Amino acid sequence: MDLDPTYTLWHPALITKNGQSQIGINVTPGAYDKMPSGPKSFFENLLDEIGLKAAVESWEILTYRSNYQGLRDKKSDWMEKWPINWRIKITLVDTIKDLSFVGNEYFESYAYSSDPAYHLHDKEKIEKTACLIISDFNDNADLIKAKNKIESSELLKEMRTSLNIVQIPNFYVVNIGNTFFQLQIFLGEFPDSFYSEGAAYAKAIEKICSKEGGITSFEKRTDEWDEWDKLYE
Asked: pLDDT tens digits for 62-87?
């Protein structure tokens, strides 16, 4: 019997930091809903599944909630609207030039570790969880406009003040196979009540992205855009 994928690996991207190559990957749960903490071979397997054979030096894992793949039905529970995902940053032993060979948006993973970390949104494990908004754009100029408006918005400044947030969001841009542009926006860490009460600050950022032509839902984007043939022909 065929095994179900343990995870789905989304939007691989190359990051160069202090002369070292890092691979950033967003991970959503499949048959396995706990993020393994190792061993090193697990992360090398993840790289192999995106088509990169490389030795791993170290790794970092960020647990976050995002509604990009979350359910949008009003009747859905807040944990279904804002499911737990992970952002993995893998530092390589050797440097690489690019990830031009990666043309797909996501990959099914069958990597497994016998040393899983406990699910990090357990109340006794973590009090706050990072929030990530993901918005896809056909035009990089629209992405830049959205980013600039988020940075300068007086409404968002007021909302950050009320939430006791000091800094503006962190932005991370990924080009998906040269077919569209993705803006990943880390807003900070929030308690469960932020999400269960509607995540107004996150919704305000989504609204800015939408006004500039961005789509913040994977399901909605696949319904509205005709990009499948471009990605998987």
From this structure: 999 999 999 998 889 999 999 999 99
